[in-house]
Amino acid sequence: MVATTTTTTIAAAYFPAFPHSILSPHPPSTRPSLPYPSKPPSSSPISSLSLSLPNKPKPTPIAFSAQIVTNPLPQNHATSSDTDGPPTENHFNLLRTSVRYNDVELAKAVHASALKREEPKTTLSNALVSAYLKLGLTTDAVRVFRQCLSCPDVVLYSTMISGLAKSGYELEAVSLFFRMRKTEIEPNEFSFVAILTACNRLSDLELGFQVHSLVVKMGYVGFTYVSNALMGSYSKCGRLDFVLQVFDEMPERDVVSWNTMIAAVVKESMYDWAIELFRDMQRVDEFSADRFTLSTVLVACAGGRNWNGGRQVHAHGIRMGFQPTLNVNNALIDFYTKCGSIRDVETLFESMPVKDIITWTEMITAYMDFGLVDLASESFDMMPEKNCVSYNALLAGCCRNGEGMRALGLFCKMVEEGTELDEFTLTIVINACGLLTDMKISEQVHGFVLKCGFGSNSNCIESALIDMCTRCGRMDEAEKMFYQGLDNVSCPINWTSMICGYSRNGKLEEAISLFCNRPSEEVVVDEIALATVLGVCGALGYHVFGKQIHCLALKIGLLNDTGIGNTLTSMYCKCGNLEGGIKIFDMMSTHDTVSWNSVMGGHLLHRQGDGALDLWSKMEKAGLQPDEDTLRLVISAYGFTDSNLVEKCRILFLSMRTTYDIEPTPELYAAFVGVLGYWDLLEEAEQLINSMPFEPNATFWRALLDAGRISLNTRIGAMAAKQILALEPLDPSTYVLVANLYSASGRWQCAEKTREEMRKKGFRKIPSRSWIINENKVHSFYTRDERHFQSRDIYSAIDVLILECMKSGYAPDTSFVLQDVEEYQKKDFLYYHSAKLAATYGLLTTKRGEPIRVMKNVAICGDCHTFLKFVSVVVRREIMVRDSSGFHVFSKGQCSCKDYW
C-alpha cells in the first residue's frame, strides 16, 4: 500500500474541499452515461469504415535503408523463400527496421509479401497498422484495418485508436472506440490508454469523465498506466483537483505517475508544491527520478526563482548520471537564465556534448534576457538549423530590449527568405511597431497582417493591433476594431488593451468609463487593467474611485502583487492622501526599487524633502540598489528640505558613478541645478554647465530657467531661454516662462516684448485646465469658461469672493495676463482663471469644513496663488491645488510651497 497522507496534506492548502471520489462508482442519479450509439456519427469517416484521410508527404528513405532492401540480408532476415510461407519473426524485424529508419518502401514490401497469403494473419496485420501509423501513412493503416474486419481483435482496435489519436484524428479515434464497444470486443487497458490520449488532445473534460466511469465499471482502475492516462487527461483540462484524487487513490504508482503529478502542479504555477512532491517521490515511494522528473522540477525552480533548489536538483542529476541528457541540460539553461548569471549559462552551454535547436534557441533567449542583443544575434547566425521558433526568440528579445527597428529588419528578412510565419511572429512584429510609434510603419504592418488572414482570427493578434494603434496615435482605428463585434468587447485582452490605450492617449475619463462598463463578469480584471486604472485615478486625482479600485484589488486577491501595491501608493500620493500612500507602502510584503521610488515621489509632490531623505536612508540600509529615477528623486529632495543640505547633495551627485555605478544624465544634472537654484547658488550652476561631459538638452535648460525665475536672476534666465529656443523653437511654453521671468523681476517692457513675439509667430500657450471631481464626475474649467451648467452661480460666487478678498488686502496682478488688451479687460481675464473657477465650484458643492481638491494641468499663476491664500482666510477652508510642480495646500493665508514653485 502507498502512503497518501503527505500529498493530501499538502493539497489541503490549495484545495479547501474536494468533490466525491471520481474513482468510486457514481450514484445512479449522477452517473455520466457513455454514449454508445447504434452506429457511429455519420460525420466520422469511420462510420462506414472507409477513411479518406489526407496522406502525409512521403519521407525520403535514407541511403542505409535502401541497402537493407537491395543488399543480401543477414541470416536472420527474410529471404525470398520465407516470404511465401507463414509470417516469421523476420517480417516483424523488417517492419521495426522500416520504422526505425523511416523507410516507407520497406514497410510496403513487407505488406506486399503479406498479401500473397491466403489466410489473414492478425498479428502481422497489427504490426503493419502500427508501422504505417508511425510512418505517418494513416490512409494505408486504415486500408489494412478494413481488410481485417472479418476477424478483428482488441489489439488491432487499440492500435488503430492510439495511432489515430496521435496522428491528429482525435474525433475519428473516439468514433472507432464507440464502434468497438458496439461489437462483442471489450476494451482492455491499452484501449483505455488510447482513448484517453484522444481525450487529452481534445481537452474534452466531459468525455474524460465518461471514459473514467467506464474504467471504474470494467475494473481497470487498478492499472497504473490507465490511471496515469487519466491524470494526463485531467491535467490537460486544467482540473488539478481531479489529478490529485486519481493520484492519491492509486494502489500502485510508478515514475510516470509522479512525473504526471509534478507536471500538472507546475502547469498551475504551484512551484513550491512541485518541489515538495519531488522530495515525497524519493521519500515515500523511494523512486529514482528520471530525466523527465529532473527537467520538470527544474522548470519549477526557474518559475519560483528557487536558486538553492535548482542547484540541488542539478547536483542530484550529476550524481544520477543525467547531466549529459539533452532535455535536462536545456532545462538547466532555462533555470540559470532566470536564477543565475550569463556566465553560468555560457559555461553550461559550452560543456554540452550535444546541442539541438531548442538549446540554441534557449541560448538566444538567455542573451536577450541579460540585455546582450549582439551576442544573441551572433548565436543566431551560428545556429546550424533555424526554424520559426528560433526566429521568434530573436524577435521577442529585440522587443524586450527596445530594439523595435532591429526586430522589423529581421522580420523583413524572414519574409524575403520565405520562413514560416505564425501568430506569435506577427504579434511580436506588431509590438515592435508599437515601440517605434511610427504611424506609417504601423499601417504597413497592419495591412500585411490582414493580408495574411490573421486579423480577425486571433485574439492575441487583434489585441496587439489595438495596442499598436493606440501607441501610434491611431485611436479612431483602435476604437473601430474594438467595438466592431461583441466578442471583441468581451475579450479580456482587448478590453485591457483599450483601457491602456485610452490612458496612454490622455483620454482618462474614457478609460474609467470603459473599466466601469465591464461587459460581463466573465471579463477577468487582471493586474494590468487594475494598475492602469489606478494610474488614471492618480492622474485625475480621483480619490474616491481609487479607493474603490483598492477594495476590488483586495476582493480578487491582487493586493499582494508588488506592482499593484506600487500603483496604489502612487495613486494615494497623487490624490493628496500622502498618509494613505505611506500606509500602503508599509503594508506591502515585499518592496522593489519602484516601491521606494513611488513613496519618495509622493513626498516630493507634497514638498516634504526631509521625509523623502529619511526613506532614502532606509532604502540604503535595506541594501536595495537604486536606479536613475531613485537618484533623481533623492537629489530633488534636497530642494525641499527645511535646512540647507546642499553639501550632502553635492557629495551624492559627484559619487553616484563610483558608489552606485550610475552615469550622470542630463536629467540628473537638471535635478541638481534645481537644488542649486532653490538655494540661490546660480554661479555654481553655471560652472556645472561648463563641466558637463555632454551637450545639455532642453530639460536641463528648463531647470536653469526655473532656477533663474525663483532667484529673480534675469541674466541666467535669459541665457537658459535662449538655449531652449534654439533647441525647441516651436515650443510656446518657453516664451511663457521667459515672460513670467521678466514679469516677476519687474521688467514689464521685456515681458510684453516676449508676448508680442509670441503673438507674431502665432504661438498660443497650452490651455490652462483645472478640474474638480464631484459626485463621481469630472468638472473641467478653462479661463473664462461658461460651458458649465452652473456657470451663473459660479460667476456670482467668484465676484463675491473677489470683493471679500480685496477687503482683506488682495490686489490683482495683471502682469500674468498674456492677452494684449486694456488694463480693465486684463482684470476681467484675471478674475476668471480656471483655478479660481474650479475652487469656487468646490466651495459651492462640498460640505462645510471639507477640504477642496483642485487639479491643474500647468503651473498655477502667481495671481491665482495669491488669491487662493486670501480665500483660505475668508472662507476658513483648506484648499488643495495640485499643479505641474506639486501640491499647494492653502490654509490660513499661507501655502505649503512657501511661495517657491
From TrEMBL:
GO terms for molecular function: RNA binding; zinc ion binding. Signal peptide: none annotated. Residues 809-901 form the DYW domain. Keywords: Repeat. It comes from the Eukaryota. The keyword Repeat applies. Belongs to the PPR family. PCMP-H subfamily. This is DYW domain-containing protein. It comes from Rhododendron simsii.
